[in-house]
Amino acid sequence: MINRRDLLMTAPAAAAATAAVVSGVAEANATVPSRDVRIDVNAMPEEYKKVLGIRFRSLDAESHLNFVTGLVKARGKIGNTPEVQAAREAYLKSKGHNSLDDTDLDYEECYRIMMGAPGQAAMAHFSSHTQQLMWDRTRRAKTKEWNYWMDELDKAQARGPGKLELNPKLVIPDSARHEIHQQPGGFVGDPLGGVVYHYAVTLGFRGGTANYDENHMQNGMNRRKPADGRVLRILDLGCGTGQSTTPLKMRFPDAEVWGVDIAAPMVRYAHWRAQKMGLEVNWRQADAGATGFPDGYFDLVCEHLMFHEASVENGEAIVREAYRVLRPGGILDHSDMGTVGNPKVQPSRTLPGKARPFETQRRNNYEPHWNTYANWNFPDALKRAGFEPKYDVAPSVGASGHMYAEKPLKA
User: Fold this and answer.
1) Cβ distance 336 to 303 under 8 Å?
2) Three-state SS letters, the chain
3) 354-407, pLDDT tens digit by residue?
4) Please, is 372 exposed, middle or buried when counting C-beta atoms within 10 Å of its C-beta (0-12, 13-18, 19+)?
5) What crossing angle do the helices spanning 11-25 and 264-276 adopt, rounded to 10°?
């Protein structure tokens, strides 16, 4: 076995590199009170690449995951050739349907019809099982390193920069206990869940397109600031492994940044990783609908692909909580799939468009709240909480329904 380093820079060196880049790029803006460091994702400094890059500790694990990623890419090409598309259209026409027309059929019926199209069931099976292979190979590799990782996470918990607040008594709702994305143990059931998720998704699912958190970095650069430009405290809800949180600290180096997630394995790994990057970010294990922060504490509240993992009831509570912890004039920056009521992006009503999320919900990604989220009028939920929804924002990488909402100044 050929061993490699997990991260390509030690914590002190990472801290020095990060500080050097920030001090070299940041410029005080005379018109706003908060520094705003702009990072060009397409020309990312080498210092960041050294901090953000990860590799498996053994070549056999990495090569196997590369093979699985190749299968995923091949599936996409095979399943979308002109010949396959023509055969699919001919099949739908024989059943009295058209792939471009909206339909009143429910999601399950659309799925059943689409599974009869030439090659469709095989492609769905292929998609599901390549994802299972991705998780299996990553988890086996990291489980072999169990002692190393548990020791690292334990040591990180007691040191800075940043702090980690865990809540062993926190009641985990059933909605958070399922094996989301088919990840064994899900986010809460495997002590190494955060480690496994980061490696599997970055090196497997994304297939080399975001080896340095490019997607998350771009989303961080696109987050909307309050009108007065004051960004002194930031909250990232459903932060997971912290990849959406650390770019906020990079962009706003003077801000107090918090990442909140209900899964202890996620925030433990996020804390360890932020320390390796030399970033002072704070982490709390808490329900996004009951964070425990004071009223009006934050200037900016963000989330990325969190709401579609929650039930509508939980989602309503999270929106109300975001409103409560924001100060008047503060911003909730929402980055997820489009929903009913969003004038920019709404869920597809075509037969294939309904079949895909049903497959995602029941088989491929196992995300049981996907369709109820899509049919939840999210802008109306924002209005009920007191927000003023707005839509003129830059697109979010990986999410189609990016929008933001302002807490009125007179709130």
Assistant:
1) yes
2) CCECCCECCCHHHHHHHHHHHHHHHCCCCCCCCCCCCCCCHHHCCHHHHHHHCECCCEHHHHHHHHHHHHHHHHHHHHCCCHHHHHHHHHHHHHCCCCCCCECCCCHHHHHHHHCCCCCHHHHHHHHHHHHHHHHHHHHHHHHCCHHHHHHHHHHHHCCCCCCEECCCCCCCCHHHCCCHHHCCCCCCCCCCHHHHHHHHHHHHHCCCCCCCCHHHHHHHHHCCCCCCCCCCEEEEECCCCCCCCHHHHHHCCCCEEEEEECCHHHHHHHHHHHHHCCCCCEEEECECCECCCCCCCEEEEEEECCHHHCCHHHHHHHHHHHHHHEEEEEEEEEECCCCCCCCCCCCCCEHHHHHHHHHHHHHHCCCCCHHHHHCCCHHHHHHHHCCEEECCCCCECCECCCEEEECCCCC
3) 998 888 877 767 788 888 999 999 999 999 999 999 987 777 887 888 899 999
4) middle
5) 70
Question: Angle CA(235)–CA(247)–CA(397) in degrees, nearest 5?
Answer: 95
Q: What is the band of 153 on the pLDDT scale with cuts at 50, 70, 90?
A: very high
- 108: which 2 tokens? 């399950």
Polymer length in residues for the chain: 411
Nearest to 224 by CA among 344, 297, 326, 337: 326
The alpha carbon of residue 396 and the mean position of all alpha carbons in its chain are separated, in whole angstroms, by 11
First to last CA, the chain: 61
Q: How far is CA 95 from CA 88, 91, 113, 168, 357, in A?
A: 11, 7, 8, 54, 21
**Angle CA(323)–CA(35)–CA(319) in degrees, nearest 5?**
10
For residue 303, what are the β-bridge partners?
237, 334
Q: Output the pTM of the full model.
A: 0.89
Location of structure tokens 């990553």: 138
